[in-house]
Amino acid sequence: MKINLKITTFLFTLGLCTSCGDFLEPQSQQYFVPQDVQSIDDMLLGTAYPRPTELYTDITAMLNLLDDDITFTMQPGSVYSFDLTSMRASLAIYSWQPDMFTQYREFAGSYGGYYHNLWQYHYELILGANAALDYVDKVTGSDNDKNRVKAQAYALRAFYYFSLVNIFGEPYNYNPEAPGVPLKTDSNIEGLDVPRNSVREVYEQIVSDLLDSERYFRSIPESEQYRPDYRVSLPMAQLLLSRVYLYMENWKGAAEYAGKVIHDWSFSLLDLNSLPAPVTPDASNKRTYYGIISPDSPETIWLYGKTTDYYNYVGKTFNSSQFDYSNGGPSGMYFNATKELIACFGENDLRKDFYIFREGAYQKDTIFLAYGKAIPFLPTSTLPESSSFARAFRLSEAYLNLAEAAAMDPELDDQTALDALNDLLEKRIKQGEFTPLSLSDLSGDALIERIRRERRAELCFENHRWFDLRRYGMPEITHRYRKTDALGNFTGPAVVQVLMKNDPAYTLPIPEEVLAKNRGLVQNRLTSGKQPVE
């Protein structure tokens, strides 16, 4: 965060709203000071939104490598040099190395390793939101337009701080007084050594920002509180507030805001029974996949990120030959879904077919790739769209938040939890095979366990699982991988890495370059005994 610059005016390049990095280090000498709210609104889109057209967009992409939904199962002899480099970089994260970001940068090198910049990228996006808030009242425009900008900026800032504090701070329900991340709520970026605020203070700021976002959204016409234009909205802010309250174990708040998302808007759960069968009726057994994370889905509330931000680290770099369906599709991937995740899907659960991409060359039922929801495929497809959105706030999360909050709060009703769970499962289980759950089937701890299992299945590979494991008590996790030679061939027995219960590695290390620039920071406790990646 130590930057030897101070914003004294708000600059835009003529004809193009730059990225935040370009804003701080402008390339052109032609600038103007914005005079109207539309310029601020355009700036917000260009500097505070993780859009598919930007270099880095999915700011939490690598979190999937940390949890228990992913395993390493690369086939020997089927990897290019690029993939071997990318694989080794990803293994530093997969094995919870205490210097994971340093290793990632060293291994990825010129191949574009950028996950080690998670801290920087979050704060650049926060800067974009802060700048909009600082300047919006200094330009011309209607109160309505200014309030719309404020509503977006507060929601975005809350989202980025929520992500940051759950990556670099201890879980709120474990130690809210632990060091979190520095709070920066204005665009004045003098070169200061800024200390870390506590996890509690960061959460308090997140809640305050989301309530402000809700207040400003409610001040504008109802028709403008949600628009399908890829910007954040009132239901997005409400769903995020439900998530935040869930993490804080404010069960009533989580249930209340989940209910608002479910009942106050026109979103609806996508019925997987309405989609054509994923297997085409021909001898080749080619499969068709549909974009679950898509603007066309009735349950999509907000889209962000892009597909290339995360599928590069869960498998080979995509190219047309790997999508040659004469061989059945892509093969040789190395980070796959675990058997435990696959076991969460019952026999008649359609999510196993629609959410998880089967290993293409052999259509195996034992190897499932760690993506699928965001990448629509037809049997004739070659390349997925690199500009496609990768992540979404989806209505299904609201049902799961409501179910968990109702089940956890003794003053709320288990039947409310069951109703929310049944509403979701009815759209996920094969038609004619769904039997509603009842209190005679599930109650108490068994109900909570079932809700968590459905949450794992429904939200798999959407950056929820790692954060959920942290708030569930940080259980022990085992990851295995095998070292390879320069050609990708296995060169020995599997390396076993164990993340112990309550392991310090459940909180990621602050990158060394960040500590070097900001002497006000202290490093997190680092886990020891992890074998380095070779």
* Low-confidence residue ranges: 1-32, 76-82, 315-332, 378-384
Question: How is the quaternary structure best described?
Answer: single chain
Helical proportion?
25-40%
Shape: globular
Cα-based radius of gyration, to the nearest Å = 23 Å
Give the helix/strand class: mainly alpha
Strand coverage percent? 5-15%
Order of strands across the widest beta sheet?
Answer: 1-2
Q: What is the residue-averaged pLDDT?
A: 81
E-strand count? 10
- Number of helices in the DSSP assignment: 17
Distance between the termini: 31 Å
What is this structure's SSE topology?
Elements: E1 12-13, H1 20-24, E2 31-32, H2 37-47, E3 70-72, H3 81-94, H4 100-108, H5 118-135, H6 143-168, H7 199-218, H8 234-247, H9 251-263, E4 300-304, H10 308-314, E5 335-337, H11 339-343, H12 351-354, E6 356-358, E7 368-372, E8 391-394, H13 395-408, H14 414-426, H15 444-458, H16 465-471, E9 477-484, E10 490-499, H17 512-517
Antiparallel strand pairs: 1-2, 3-5, 4-8, 6-7, 9-10
What's the short story on this structure?
With 534 residues, this protein is mainly alpha-helical. It is 38% helix and 8% strand.
Question: What would your notes on this structure say?
Answer:
The chain is mainly alpha-helical. Helix content is 38%, strand content 8%. It contains 17 helices and ten strands. Strand 9 and strand 10 form a beta hairpin. Helix 6 runs antiparallel to helix 7 and helix 6 runs parallel beside helix 8. The relative contact order is 0.15. The N terminus is likely disordered.
